[in-house]
Structures are given as structure tokens and as C-alpha cells.
Specification:
This protein has about 300 residues and is α+β, with helices and mostly antiparallel strands. It contains seven helices and 15 strands.
């Protein structure tokens, strides 16, 4: 086992691999081929990313894919031998040992902007900087969570070929760090049964969650960025340069600060660092839900 590799941050290693294989110098997208999508839950890009990371990591690092659809996270990257000797409390925070990566794929509008800028669907699992998985005995294992946001676009006039025009790998705490809220949603919930005239209906009472979309920030679109809680990654990884800060206001007061990195090869000589406060747009929201769409007929019956 390479002692030096044990000290590397697995999120940084993942980012460097993704940057190298999906982009050329200057952040220019590299086309790649995906197989056809088989069904609604099937995601060829997740499969492609898993295979890429599995092939490119050193032998002491494993990349494990979710065992089925509708299971989060999509991937777990870990050093198995190191993890076997570590305490659970260490595994909950040490990014050199283990990390979860959830893949979020976005598209562009016809005008070229990132779709869903004011918030994207996270379905039934809220984002979080800590996520829950389970060990081989079925016992709870809480580990750090990162999110990979990509904008995937078809390559014009090349059937089956795609490219990523934007990529952000970010600390889940950028989106939400309330692990108790996360657990309240992903745990067991009561289901309403015996509904309807014949008593055979059920209501799964599943939440549908909307949180921030980092690619909505212009400073992160059309670029390849790692967003991390550490401010010193440049010291350990010579290819990286810190390009900016993102600060998010906490509801109870104060701010959280995250540091943005890109490859030195992707930066123009005259680039300027950015310092952003709450850069992700918020929609006008109310506590009331919207009613279902109304089927309106051109008909006025007699009273």
C-alpha cells in the first residue's frame, strides 16, 4: 500500500480524475459515448462515472455503486483497509478514508441557461454534508457527503455522444448541514392505508424536496470547480488553485464559508477571485402547495 496515497483527500482525487477525463486544457469539454437509457430509473452517466473512477483510482481505493435504483448515495469512495481499522467516529468525518458522492444531472434551456436555477428536485432525500449508509452487518455508518453537479449535453450531429459543459463537486454542507433534518426525512414514516371507496388505496406521504442548484451561479457555470470546506488544498495538491469563496447565511445567525478550486491549467492569466454571499437564487415560495392543473372545457352548462 502506498503510504502517501492514504493521506490524500478522496474528494480531491475524484475531482482530478473527473476533470482529466471529461475536460481538456482550459476546461474544454471532451465528448464521450453513453449507452442508451433502458428505463426511467436507469442512468448511463452514473454507470459511466462509476466505471471511470473505479478504473482510475489506485488499487487501495474502491468506488462502490449503489446496489439498485432509488438508493442514495449513488457512489461511495473508500479505502477499505484503512476503514477496517478506523473507529466509526473517524469515518464520519475523515475524507481520506471514505466519502459518499451523489450525482445530479442538469440540462440547459433553449436559451443556454442552466435549467431550474432557483432550486432543483432532490426527490425524497434532502442533501446533506453527512449521509447515512450501512456496513456489512447492517449497522449504521454515517459518512461525509459530496454532490457532483453536471450539465450534460448531446454533441451535435454525433449520435450517442455527449459532453459536460459544467461540473461542480461540492461539499454537501454547502447545500445543507442539518443532519437531524436529513434523518427525519430518510427514516421510516407512517403510511396512510385503507383509503378510498373500496379501502384498497394508500398514501405513501413521500416528501418531494427542493434545495439549491449550485450551477445557477454564473461564476460556477461553464467551468470545472471543486467546492470544499478546507482553505489549504493548494498546499497539498499542486495542480489546484483557489479561485473564490462562497459564503452562506445560516438561519440562526452567522455564515458558513466554502472554498472554490480549479485546475491551474483552466485559468486565464487575468482571472480574478470571486467572493460570493448567498449566490444561489431563491424562488418566491409560500407554505401552500399549488393545486393540480385544471382541465378547462369550452362549455357552460345550464344551471
Amino acid at each position: 500500500m502506498n503510504p502517501r496515497s492514504i493521506q490524500t483527500d478522496l474528494t480531491t482525487e475524484s475531482f482530478l480524475i473527473l476533470r482529466r477525463y471529461f475536460f481538456a486544457k482550459g476546461g474544454k469539454p471532451r465528448p464521450f459515448r453513453l449507452r442508451d437509457k433502458r428505463n426511467t430509473q436507469d442512468d448511463p452517466l452514473d454507470e459511466y462515472i462509476h466505471r471511470l473512477l473505479s478504473d482510475q483510482f489506485p488499487t487501495d481505493v474502491d468506488c462502490v455503486k449503489a446496489p439498485g435504483p432509488l438508493i442514495t448515495p449513488d457512489l461511495v469512495v473508500l479505502r477499505p483497509e484503512v476503514c477496517k481499522r478506523a473507529a466509526r467516529v473517524t469515518l464520519s468525518s475523515n475524507l481520506t478514508h471514505i466519502v459518499a458522492i451523489e450525482v445530479k444531472k442538469l440540462e440547459r434551456t433553449q436559451g443556454g441557461a442552466i435549467a431550474r436555477p432557483s432550486g432543483m428536485d432532490y426527490n425524497t432525500t434532502p442533501p446533506c454534508g453527512t449521509v447515512r449508509v450501512y456496513d456489512s452487518s447492517g449497522a449504521v455508518l454515517d459518512i461525509r457527503g459530496f454532490y457532483l453537479f453536471v450539465c450534460q449535453e448531446a454533441v451535435r450531429n454525433q449520435s450517442g455522444k455527449y459532453q459536460l459543459s459544467s461540473l461542480v463537486l461540492c461539499d454537501g454542507n454547502l447545500l445543507n448541514e442539518d443532519f437531524n433534518y436529513y434523518l427525519s426525512i430518510v427514516g421510516e414514516r407512517a403510511k396512510e392505508i385503507g383509503l378510498g371507496t373500496y379501502g384498497n388505496g394508500a398514501n405513501r406521504t413521500r416528501p418531494m424536496l427542493i434545495f439549491s442548484n449550485p450551477l445557477s451561479a454564473p461564476q460556477l457555470d461553464h467551468s470545472v470547480t471543486l467546492i470544499h470546506s478546507r482553505d489549504d488544498l493548494e498546499k497539498n495538491v499542486s495542480q489546484l488553485r483557489q479561485v473564490g469563496l462562497i459564503k452562506r447565511t445560516i438561519q440562526q445567525g452567522g455564515t458558513n464559508t466554502f472554498y472554490c478550486y480549479r485546475l491551474a491549467d483552466d485559468l486565464r492569466k487575468d482571472y480574478r477571485q470571486f467572493d460570493l454571499l448567498d449566490p444561489f437564487p431563491l424562488p418566491a415560495r409560500t407554505e401552500r402547495t399549488q393545486p393540480r392543473g385544471r382541465f378547462r372545457l369550452n362549455l357552460q352548462p345550464a344551471d
